[in-house]
Structure formats: C-alpha cells, structure tokens
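#struct-queue
[09:14] JT: dropping the first one here, sequence first, then the structure tokens:
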Amino acid sequence: MNVSVIIPALNEEEPIANVVRECLATNIPSEIIVVDNGSDDRTADRAREAGAKVVGDPRHGYGRACLAGIRALSPACEIIVFLDGDGSDCPEFMKQFVDPIAAGNYDFVIGSRTRGQREPGSMNFQQISAGRLAGWLISILYGVRYTDMCPFRAIKRDALEKLSMKEETYGWNLEMQMKAARAHLRILEVPVNHRCGVSKVSGTIRGTFVAGARIIATFVRIALAKL
C-alpha cells in the first residue's frame, strides 16, 4: 500500500535530517512530509536537503502541523505514519506499524514506549503516568486499553478521515486515540524503542504544564461529545 510519513517539526535543525534519512532507509514511505511549524532555524532547509517534501504552517501547534501535513498528502496515499522530528522515535519499527494495516487486519497501529526499551531520561515520570492514566480512562469509556500516548503511529487514510480530527495543539494524539476507540477501529499497540530527543515540551516545567492542560481539556471535550 502507498505509505506517507508526516513529521511535525519546530526548530529541529539538528536532528531532522537524520530522522528523514532513517525513514527513507526503511524503503517503506513513498513520500515524507516535514511540516515546519514556524521554525526560526534551518529546519526546513535541512529536511528538504535530506529528501523530504516540506510544507509550512507558521501557527504553532502540534495538531495544526499534523493537519497541514494531511492537507499536503498525495492522492495516492493509503496509510499515514506520524512520528516526531526530534529524533526520539525509531523509524526502523515502521514496518511493524504498516504491515498489519496493509494486511487488512488493523486500521490503527500505535507504538508503546512504556512497553519497549527506553534510553534513560527519554521519558519523564509525567509522560509515563499521563499515558497510563489516559489509557485507563479510555478503557473505562470505550473498552480499549492503551499504555501510552506515543506520537509514533500509523493509520489508514480513510479511517483517519472518518475521525474528523479537530485538535490543534498537544491534545492531537489523545484525540486520535479516543476517537479511534469510540469509532470501533481495529486497534493494535506495539512496543517500540525510544531515544532521548531534543524535547521542547517535556523538557521544561512550563511545557509540561501547558501540554498537560491541553490534554486534559481534550479528554473532557471528546468524552462529553455525542457519539
């Protein structure tokens, strides 16, 4: 199946070229789209030089960047892979995401960093706890248990379109997981390894607080929405 990779990026000048090259080395994606989310460094140039298609959305927001990437997809795309641009995700696991979808067995495959091998310091206590708590609450609401809100994931394009994603900030990943569970998509969680990246969110107290607030707001909004 035709696979496209979307990589939201904000000031990822140092790691982005390696991320793109690692994705290309899998020989899986037909296109790699890096969304420059208002960087003030050479993120876009580095990504383009490494072989990615670069689109821009200057309005900061993780969800906004993901939505911009979706708008830039080629018409032939059938499976969309999302991963971060800070070098923390491991593209060599991409086959484990794409194959179950291409085989027709699943619609949505998400990584679990907590079930895989993590470099020391690659995830803080808040990230681990938030992923497990969200997974527990989602299991109560929809009967689907996640162990992480890992940004590394793959989904059928037509399945994603049915979810009507709207979140423009840090709640994007949780919105997808909740809506996928509510829509009864066939969901698979796979363990993935995780490396230390250049985090602009979890690496700061303010960033952690802001992300946490958006995630809570997203959970409440989706949970209270009509089925």
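[09:21] JT: and here's the second one, same format:
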Amino acid sequence: MADAGRARPGGRTARTRGAVLDATLAELVRHGYAALTVDAVAARAGVNRTTVYRRWGGREGLVAEAVEAFAAGQARVPDTGDVDEDLRRWARSIFDTLATPESAAVVRAVFGGGDSPRLRELRHRWWTVRATLAVPVVARAVERGQLPAGTDPVEVVKHVGAPLYYRLLVLNEELTAAAADLAAAVTAAAAHAGVFVREAS
C-alpha cells in the first residue's frame, strides 16, 4: 500500500497526502472502518491531527478519499483492440487486486464491515471508480462492431467482476487466475450473444 503514496507527484503536500492516505488504508486493514480514528491515522502518518481535520474534515472524508485513490490505483485498464482479451485482462486486474493480502483486506473492510449508510457509500465509490475506468473499453468494442449494438457496457463490467467478489466475500474461496479467466470468458460469450443488449424503451 505504500507504493500508492510513492506513486503520487513529489512535493511536501503530495508526500503528506500520500502518507496520510497510506496510513488510513493501513488502519482500515488493521482495525476495520468502525474502529478507525483520525488520531491513529495521524500518528501512523507522522502528521498533526489538525492537518488531517483541516484537509479531510474527519474520518469519513479521509476514508472516502483513501478508498477512491486505492481503487483507482489498483486498476490496470486494458485496450488491446480485442474485447475478449480486454475482458480477460480486466478480470486479471481484479484478480491481482483481490488476491493480494493487503488489498483483499481493504476490500473486506469496505464490503464486510457492516451495512451503515457510510459503508454503502464507500462500496458505491469503490465500484464507481473502477467501473468508470473499464466501461469505455466495452463501449469502444461496441463502436468497433465486436459486440452487438445496444450492449450495456456497465452490465458487462459488472458481470466480469461479480463472480470474483462473490468467491472472495461470500464463499471465502482462494481466488485463482483460472477463475478470473472463466469470469471473463463467460461474460464475453454472453455479450457476443446479445445478453447485455438494452431493450428499447
């Protein structure tokens, strides 16, 4: 998780932001959302708690930005020009995220930490950030004629990731690259067959 901070631009402000967001993720993994405190994040990051409050306003803003940055930073968006390969690579990107112990712990903290309105918002934020990156890949495949006109890119992206999150969060199974490839292949076959074509309203 420290890599996310190091990947950000230089400068004192950027370094402080990176240290605080990395500390937030570390506290989220260790203690979960409910027990995470601004004081603990500030201490881990080596900054004054007033710095955190001034920039993020408190725990909710802090966790929201950390989760959003983490979700975007973990994604590798493919664009090979072949939709089947792109979906396979996107599934592998999801697998790489979920199969890493620290990353999986962040996902479990966000998705398995209860059902409060704030956690629902964090889950939606996680999904929105990652989907926004992948949806254009499917949209371009429709434009190229590789998928039927009217295919809903959002639904395609959902169906690539859903089996992997289900295995991790519901079945508590160890994820494999083969499972990622299967999710992508099944989704691609369904997409080619027109399963995800939106009905005309």
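[09:30] RK: nice, looked through the second one.
[09:31] RK: Residues 28 and 122 are 12 Å apart (CA to CA).
[09:31] JT: good to know. The chain has a mean pLDDT of 87.
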